[in-house]
Amino acid sequence: MSSTRIARLRAVLERRQPDLTVLMDNVHKPHNLSAVLRTCDAVGVLEAHAVWPSERVRAPHHTAGGSARWVPVRSHADLPGAIGTLAGAGHTVIAAHLGPGAVDYREVDYTRPTALLLGAELDGVSATGRELAHRHVVIPMHGQVESLNVSVAAAVILFEAERQRSSAGFYATPRLEPETLEKTLFEWAHPRVAEWCVRHGVSYPPLDEDGDILGPLPGPRP
Prior knowledge:
Layout: H1 3-13, E1 20-25, H2 30-43, E2 48-51, H3 67-70, E3 73-76, H4 79-88, E4 92-96, E5 103-104, E6 114-119, H5 127-132, E7 135-138, H6 150-167, H7 178-189, H8 191-200
Parallel strand pairs: 1-2, 1-6, 2-3, 4-6, 4-7, 5-7
């Protein structure tokens, strides 16, 4: 690990937004999932959330490539539970859905804790998601098609959130708790060692200024 790389990882974490996320409602096609997570990484989402259509497609790291390393996906058993968890943490759940009461996506204040609810390619946000979401937003369309690909819609809305948060100075100073930042930094810098530590119930060892591990780990090395 070089000092330049560890500095880069730390700089990225210092711009992560712990109160901006997405909740994917059965979004399971690999190219869509990967594209959504790439956008999440670009705008500073710390963790994404998902409800999967089946156990077979539950593990996102098999389909999202490297994107899931930087933006882990937290799986939920069902949509009511996922929305309840996010709402309980203070997030406003905003569904990307064209329907009665939907407002232009640019009219929403994304500097508030926000979870963007996204539906699958053909079906969109499910009836349950539409009912439980706090607000609905729509991207104005002026052509023949009525909707965008889910990953494109996610990018459009999330970059509006980025614009608002950038204007408000949200990326200027770290917003993660110091313990969360250092924990995530270790996991990014040394993923195999972090996995080994979790598996064996061992605390992460400290890092030096270059991001190298200080001292030996107890037991066999990972």
